[in-house]
Write a structure and sequence with these properties.
With about 140 residues, this protein is an all-alpha fold. It has 4 helices and 2 strands; from the N terminus they run H-H-H-H-E-E. The protein is globular, with a radius of gyration of 19 Å.
C-alpha cells in the first residue's frame, strides 16, 4: 500500500480549506521555498544580525528595484527572475519580523525589569562574539 506524505502546509490547507490558488501557494511555493531558505541560512549564518533592521530594509529595496525593472519596466534580468526575487523577499521579511520581535521583547523585558535579551553576532573572522544589546534605540 502506497502512503502519501502530507507536508505541514498541506495539513493546514486541509484544516482550513483555503480558496484557489492559495492552496498552491501554501502547498507548492512554501514547500519549495523552505529548503532553499534553510540552505541559504546555513551559508549566511548570523550575518543578518550585523546588518540589523536597516540592513534588511536596504536588502528589500535592492530587490524591489530589480522587481520593478522586470515587472513594471519590462526589462529582462540577466541572472534572476522575478519569482526567485520574490521568494528571497519572503526570507528578508521573515528576518525583519524576527528582528523586530526580538527588539520589542527586549523593550518589554526592560519595562518589566526582567533580564534583557542579548544577541551575540559574530564579527567577521572572529571566533568570539561581541555582545550586542537590542532595545528601543535600535528601531
Amino acid at each position: 500500500m502506497n502512503e502519501v506524505a502530507i507536508s505541514p502546509y498541506a495539513r493546514v490547507q486541509l484544516k482550513k480549506g483555503f480558496p484557489e490558488p492559495y492552496d498552491d501557494m501554501i502547498d507548492i511555493m512554501l514547500d519549495n521555498f523552505i529548503p532553499g531558505w534553510r540552505e541559504a541560512a546555513n551559508d549566511y549564518g548570523r550575518a543578518f544580525m550585523e546588518l540589523g533592521l536597516r540592513g534588511q530594509y536596504v536588502e528589500v529595496q535592492r530587490k524591489v528595484y530589480k522587481l520593478k525593472q522586470e515587472l513594471w519596466e519590462g526589462r529582462k534580468l540577466n541572472r534572476e527572475d522575478s519569482g526567485q526575487i520574490a521568494l528571497e523577499l519572503i526570507g528578508n521579511c521573515l528576518i525583519i519580523a524576527w528582528l523586530y520581535s526580538q527588539i520589542h521583547e527586549t523593550a518589554r523585558a526592560k519595562a518589566t525589569d526582567t533580564p534583557t535579551l542579548m544577541i551575540a553576532p559574530l564579527q567577521h573572522g572572529s571566533r568570539h562574539p561581541k555582545m550586542q544589546q537590542f532595545g528601543p534605540a535600535d528601531e
